[in-house]
Write a structure and sequence with these properties.
The structure holds two protein chains of two kinds. Chain A is α/β, with parallel strands linked by helices. Helix content of chain A is about 60%, strand content about 10%. In chain B, about 45% of the residues lie in helices and about 15% in strands. The chains are: A alpha/beta, B alpha/beta.
């Protein structure tokens, strides 16, 4: 197994240039691109998430690490595609209908991409119909619903209900998050998971697709 | 010290409570733009402002928290920013008359500098448009509230100060294991250093996770500066009951902690999310009784 410690240090430091250089060097030394994701980037991003949850990292640190990872993916995605390797998973994301806030969702999108997921970001105030169409069209395994306003929480339930009526509820995992969202709310409306913050959203997504 | 602020000192000065939930009680639909009501439903907005004046608020805000061009654009109102702000200032001034001061509310854009969604030059322009429109209607001060990112505050504060009005800057401290940092990791001490340096006339904390947590934050802000402190906590954290958000803190429970907040150094005290005119009335009753428990 190749030693990815340089790459991991660069991701943890949020140094995009150093991360890309370390990835290039590893590839030139014969490292397997999939190994680079599974044993280089993923553990580093998991550590970033741990540091965030421990209060050592805050939003700016999360963002620069996610950006470094994203740059590495630009380099290796074509190589992965050539090998026939799939993204970790495909996630449709959006802020629910009536809610125009997107900072939380954008953080989750940046981190999921950093974790190797393909993200289809539908933006803000997304109708249940748009979520359903995107999930069907893109064959996404996960749909992520975000809300900041307490007044738009009911739209999460409406969206889930729409998936049920469309007969698609069993084909997709639903994860929810946002300031007013709690685990008990997630349980009440029958979501598959709840992330307390952007970092835990990535771990949750990995768990939901079984990697 | 800015003369317009000095008149109100040493305090404590009772400010107002939440507007969003009060506007909803007036019929604002979920997802509808609250600021747009300044033009379309001015009488209903004035009802909210008057309720705070009636409850005894010495300072009321304006319904302009989200009235910057970037946020309004999401509602298709991006080109109406100036008019919405002017109307909002007029409504609150009408409601306040000579009984209360009007501090005009300016909130963040919702765009992240760190994600490249906006830049400093654009922010400077957007906040100048809002601050100038509010100042043109003769408000007593400008309040930058619910901010988390010092990078966004700097251009906003520069634009606000250029009007010549006193400027209050209030951050949300709700992150980190001790819930004593902003989302971006800034501590109360770091905030004071940066905001004093940038010329804030008063500063403080709003929103967050309830009055309990803001007492130690207030103490730390007070230890770091002698400027007036502005504190408006939430009425606790919402619980979701039957799909609706419910704030469990009662006006009396909230008011019972207000003397502690003042002892910790707060100059301006009010409530944020989940509070109402009943909270303001309860605070005033509590302070009139000499803060006895």
């Amino acid at each position: 197994m190749h030693d990815f410690s340089k790459l991991q240090e660069a991701v943890l430091a949020g140094n995009s240039a150093a991360a890309v250089a370390a990835a290039r060097q590893a590839l030139s030394e014969g490292a397997d691109p999939l190994d680079l994701v599974l044993h280089g980037i993923s553990p580093a991003m998991a550590e970033v998430g741990r540091l965030f949850e421990a209060g050592d990292y805050f939003v700016p640190e999360l963002l620069i690490s996610a950006r470094a990872t994203k740059e590495v993916f630009v380099l290796i995605r074509p190589l992965l595609a050539k090998q026939g390797a799939q993204p970790t998973g495909r996630v449709v994301l959006g802020t629910v209908q009536g809610d125009l806030h997107d900072i939380g969702k954008n953080l989750v999108a940046a981190l999921l991409e950093g974790g190797g997921f393909e993200v289809i970001d539908l933006g803000v105030s997304v109708s249940p119909e748009k979520f359903i169409a995107a999930v069907a069209d893109k064959k996404a395994q996960i749909v992520g619903l975000s809300a900041l306003l307490t007044t738009t929480l009911p739209a999460m339930k409406t969206t889930l209900d729409a998936f049920r009526s469309a007969g698609l509820r069993d084909r997709v995992k639903v994860m929810i998050g946002g300031a007013p969202v709690t685990q008990s709310f997630a349980d009440t409306i029958g979501a598959d998971g709840y992330g307390e913050n952007a970092a835990s959203a990535v771990q949750l997504a990995r768990r939901l697709v079984g990697v | 010290m800015h003369a317009l602020l000095r008149d109100l000192l040493p305090g404590p000065v009772i400010t107002d409570g939440a507007w969003g939930t009060q506007l909803q009680a007036q019929g604002l639909a979920a997802g509808e733009c609250p600021d747009g009501w300044n033009l379309t439903q001015p009488a209903r907005v004035e009802t909210v402002a008057r309720a705070y004046v009636e409850a005894g608020s010495q300072v009321i805000l304006t319904n302009t928290f989200g009235a910057n061009r970037l946020r309004l654009a999401a509602h298709g109102l991006g080109n109406q920013a100036a008019g919405i702000n002017r109307a909002g200032a007029q409504i609150s001034r009408r409601a306040a008359g000579s009984r209360a001061r009007v501090f005009a509310s300016i909130g963040p854009t919702g765009k992240m500098l760190a994600l490249g969604e906006t830049n400093e030059a654009e922010l400077r322009e957007v906040f100048a448009e809002q601050a100038n429109a509010l100042a043109a209607e003769g408000v007593d001060a400008l309040l930058l509230e619910t901010f988390s990112d010092l990078g966004e505050i700097r251009p906003a504060l520069a634009a606000a100060k250029a009007t010549g009005l006193p400027v209050v800057v209030s951050l949300v401290f709700d992150s980190g294991p001790a819930r004593d940092r902003t989302m971006m990791g800034t501590t109360p001490e770091q905030a004071v250093a940066a905001l004093v340096e940038a010329g804030a006339d008063a500063l403080g904390a709003n929103c967050g996770r309830g009055i309990e947590g803001y007492i130690p934050i207030c103490r730390r802000l007070r230890a770091a500066t002698d400027r007036p402190l502005w504190i408006k906590p939430n009425a606790g954290l919402p619980e979701v009951v039957d799909g609706r958000a419910v704030y469990r803190t009662s006006p009396e429970q909230f008011a019972a902690r207000v003397p502690d907040l003042i002892a910790a150094g707060a100059t301006f005290v009010g409530g944020c999310c989940g509070s109402s005119p009943a909270f303001i009335a309860a605070m005033i009753r509590r302070l009139a009784s000499g803060g006895r428990k």
